[in-house]
Amino acid sequence: MAEQAKKATAAKRGRRTDGGQAKEAIQEAAWRLFAENGFDRTSVRQIALAAHVDPMLVTHYFKTKAGLFAAIMRPPVEPSEAIAFVLAEGPDHAGERMAAFILRTLESPDRRKWIVAMVRAATAEPEIAAVVRERFAETILIPLAEAIGSSDPEYRATLVMSQLIGLAMTRYIAAVEPMASRPADEVAADIAETFQRYLTGPLSAG
Predict the structure, then answer these.
(1) For residue 38, which of 103, 107, 124, 104 has the smallest C-alpha distance?
(2) Average pLDDT over the chain, rounded to whole?
């Protein structure tokens, strides 16, 4: 009887009682709210409310808000798709195609919202910064540099990431002019040579 009463009370409040469904609902709500509001402006309580669960369930499954963010974070594009596009015309055109691919991705409103949320969160939370490095470098950038056959692929991956994060911060987060309003194809053309150098150019002696 007590268990039935507990379930009835939860149902009246609109809260989910199934563990698997609750966890999935939390992740879906968090994905949407982090993209819309950013990491800092999204609270555990807001996520729980959107997921129709008790806030304690969020901490039960994910420990912290940063832990939840890290759990749902993934690259905004399929790694294989990105690598295939960049290498479609061979290593000598990799920088040009990478710049075009990145700008095309960032100009997509849905993808841009999530990338901006990731960059902002990474600058605020060391735990998230580590996951960003892992997800982007290990799934896309390092395999890309290895496929090209470049020396020191891990270092090259971090060079590319520095350009990507800087671009996101300058153009989309801080909206620094004239970068913010420059046509995307012009920005891509102007940064292509830098990407090419990072991917295939000579490195200083380490």
Answers:
(1) 124
(2) 87
Judge if 93 and 179 occupy the same domain: yes
From CA 100, how far away is CA 200, in angstroms rounded? 17
CATH number at residue 13: 1.10.10.60
- What mean pLDDT do residues 34-58 have? 92
Q: What average pLDDT does this structure show over 172-193?
A: 96
Please state the rounded mean pLDDT for residues 55-66: 93
> Which of 35, 29, 25, 23 has the alpha carbon at shortest distance from 62?
23
Residue 111 to residue 131: CA distance in whole angstroms: 18
Read off the pLDDT of residues 98-121 as tens digits, 9 standing for 90 and up: 999 999 999 998 888 888 888 888
Same domain, 67 and 84: no
Q: Is residue 194 assigned to a domain? A: yes
List of E strands, 143-198: none
Domain that holds residue 113: 79-200
Residue with tokens 């095309």: 104
